[in-house]
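Hello Y.,

Per our agreement to keep a running log of every chain we model this quarter, I'm adding this entry. I've kept the format consistent with earlier entries: sequence first, then predicted structure.
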Amino acid sequence: LVSEKLDGVRAVWDGATLRFRSGREVHAPEWFVAGLPKRPLDGELWLGRGTFERLSGIVRKAVPDDAEWRQVRYMIFELPGAPGTFAERAEAIRQVVRAASVPWLREIGQFPVVDRDSLQKKLKEVVKAGGEGLMLHRADAPYKTGRRDVLLKLKPWLDAEAEVVGHQP
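Predicted structure for the entry above:
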């Protein structure tokens, strides 16, 4: 299954508190979190393509601006700890979003791709529209945390990710 890779701010909901990937709490308005289900969710806070800097400014404020947060969507791509395959969890995400019935909670759409040519065509389409790339999920994968070979990023350029382990002046 394939989805667009959103350039948002990663946020994890544990059923009670919304946190950044670092573990720090996201200071979202009370109405925003009150509308979320009482089960763990993993996704991206998102405004739209090409809006990362503006989004980052909104969601990192210690005192949330209600009007700004009305534009933010929480785009769900995983149900932490949930059983079943990724395809089954993707269906469960659709049901969770539907049941919550709040406009700021959305699923990240998943679609099958039949071959490499179709995949490259979809990548070009997303990038041309201002997207960053695609996420490739093994439909039969169980839930696991951390980096794994059942979930891959596909982008038209290479980038490096690293963890800083030290610094010397």
